[in-house]
Structures are given as structure tokens and as C-alpha cells.
Amino acid sequence: MHFFKWLGIGLILLCGIFAGVCFAAFERRRVAQAEGFLALLRLIRLQIDCFSMPVGHILAACDKEVLSACGATAVPADLGTMLATTRLYLSEDICRLLREFASRLGGSYREEELRCCDYYLARLAPYCDVLRADLARRERMALLLPPALSVAVILLLL
């Protein structure tokens, strides 16, 4: 019977460590996705400014690493379908901002498209900066808090 008690303690501790590692990976993925969308918006703005390309052609010619950083598994037809089919790790405000950008993009003249891109880049860049600056603190919290909670549960059960 003593063996099963130690086995349970070990399993609780391992679950806490595993949860911490998963939570830290989630935080890194969220920052990577925010930076990927920021890079995508910059690329879209550059392509519209330099070549006046439509959004479908921009996404088709886009680097696969930028699309995979955003979470897309295949080349999307437009940004709206990409947002609809991609699992978003970002906050609801930023997801709403990206959906709003996707709905406004591609239906107006070049200068208006550039102003739209500038506006949404200015709104998304500070969010990425905050996430990037907060990443180390949130990773430490993610790696420390679940194992500490599992140790607390173990102490309560003993």
C-alpha cells in the first residue's frame, strides 16, 4: 500500500510539471503568433505600397514561415478565411481587430488600403511589444505555479 501512495505522489507531481511545461509552450506560441500576424500585416502593407497587389496574390506569394507563424497550415485565399480556419491564441480584442482588418482589406483604393494597414499596424505593434516584454515573466510563472500547486495538493493529502 505504501508503494501506491508514493506512486500517486509522483503522478501528481509529474502532472504539475507537465501542466507547467504546456502552459509555458502556450505562452511562447501566443507571442510567436502575434509576431507572425504583425509580420504578415507589414508584408501586406509593403506589397500594396510597392506593387499594388491584391490580397489573394500577396498571400499566395507570402513566405510559408510567416504563414506558419500565424498558424495557417495551407495558403489561404484571403485573410478572412485564414482567420476563420486558424486556431488563434491571441486575446479576443486582438482577434476582433484582425477580423476587422480582414473585412476592410481589399475593397478600396491603394491609398485607403495603406492608411488601413498603418492603422492596424499601429494598433497591433504595442500589443506585440507588451507580449514580448511579458514573456519571460509569464514563462517563469507557468513553469513555477503548476508544480507548486501540485506540491500543495500533495501536502494536503499527506
Task: Based on the model shown, name its key terms.
158 residues; mainly alpha; elongated
Structural features, described:
- With 158 residues, the protein is mainly alpha-helical.
- It has one domain (2-157).
- Helices cover 84% and strands 0% of the residues.
- The chain has 6 helices and no strands.
- Helix 1 (2-51) packs across helix 3 (64-70) and helix 1 runs antiparallel to helix 6.
- The longest helix has 50 residues, at 2-51.
- The protein is elongated and about 75 Å long.
- The mean pLDDT is 93.
**Mean pLDDT metric:** 93
What structural class should be given to the helix and strand makeup? Answer: mainly alpha
DSSP strand (E) fraction?
under 5%
Number of strands: 0
Describe the secondary-structure layout.
Elements: H1 2-51, H2 55-61, H3 64-70, H4 79-85, H5 92-104, H6 110-157
Helix pairs in contact: 1-3, 1-6, 5-6
In short:
With 158 residues, the protein is an all-alpha fold. It contains six helices and no strands.
